[in-house]
Amino acid sequence: MTAFLVGRTICGLGGSGMYTGVMMMLSFLTTPEERPAYLGLTGLTWGLGTVLGPIIGGAFALNVSWRWALYINLIFGAVAAPVYFLMIPELQTAKGSIISRWKKVDFLGTILIVGMLISCLMAINFGGILYPWDSGQIIALFVVAGVLAVVFGVQQALCIGTSTEYRSFPVQFLRNPQVLLIFAAEICAITLTFIPIYFLPLFFQLVQTDTALQSGIKCFPLVIFLVVTIVGNGMVTARYPWFQPWFLVGSIFGLTGAVLLYCTDETTSDARIYGYSVLIGFGAGCFVTLCFATAQTQVKIAEIPHAVAFMAFAQQGGAALTLAVSNSVFLNVAIRKISEILPDEPRSGIQRILSGLGSDILSSLSKTDRYRVSQAVAASLSNAYIVTIICGALAVILSLFIVRDRDWEKQARLAVGKVLGRPKETDREEELGIHK
Locate the Major facilitator superfamily (MFS) profile domain: which residues (predicted)? Predict the structure, then answer.
């Protein structure tokens, strides 16, 4: 277990850095017109991984070894490595030695915000599962998270151990209402994206007793419509840069899909679930990556890297927080409901049922009790979509106030040497400091 925890931590650090780095490079290497299309393509690669991951991993687990679901990443990394070293241009955005640049990193702010998030997530995940909500452990975790949040705010505001330019949190954006609106919209979009991707497979496995491979295949409609919409949104927005309609239409579809998924139960047909997931996939795809491009139109050119990091924080931090809340709702409700059906079953046995490892317990139950347990699990999974309904409704409201700064496009063109028509590549490379 220790190896898994350490490995997942390293994977999380690497994946987060790669994702933010890709978004950063695309922002530097593209014009305002090109940017939405290229940012949308990141959704394609993510979607392919989401679609193929369960299939490849399930096939390895069933036929070879589950370890190959992890080894396969080394093969993909080795194939892609030459591209990283030979084809990606060098961006000289910072000067000085590596050591001098490391000294500019806001390590204190990073430690504070990571500690705050970990404490908060631990409290949410452990509450009602390992410890009662009113226990000293859970209260202490929430208190620690709150104290660290206050200390982090003071440290960032006063630039303690850092500088205005290099602090972890872009405090200047707190005075920019449009960026804050887009930040909140990104949290809503990523919630509409990840909660169905996480909980639909659980529904298929725990309620319909499908295998991991079968549940992955049944998520195809959601992921395919999500990816196609992300890519299509990028292509269309690159040609017609009207951002606000995408936010409004997407949030309406996402809210509709979330409400319908909330209404599902153990008798809901696969066809209906596919239809509901298509609605929420299309809705989330309309603006989950568009927030990156939109936020950049609301800041100064020099602040684009901060805007990208700000949106990445909304995306990754929002996903972690809302998934933790939804999972906590699901587990707490499910444990309570199943305990009422199986009063003699220990808590550890109920947790095994919810983790998919309690087939021996279920097989020993009567047909009536098995059906009641299935009902309880389905109802508990539906409660997890309450968070998506809240975020969908909030996104509808936010979309009414998001506007596009038309003056920014002119500034951006000038920043990359574009006055009339398309800039020469040499001009853009010289402006950005690209060395091939």
Answer: 1-407
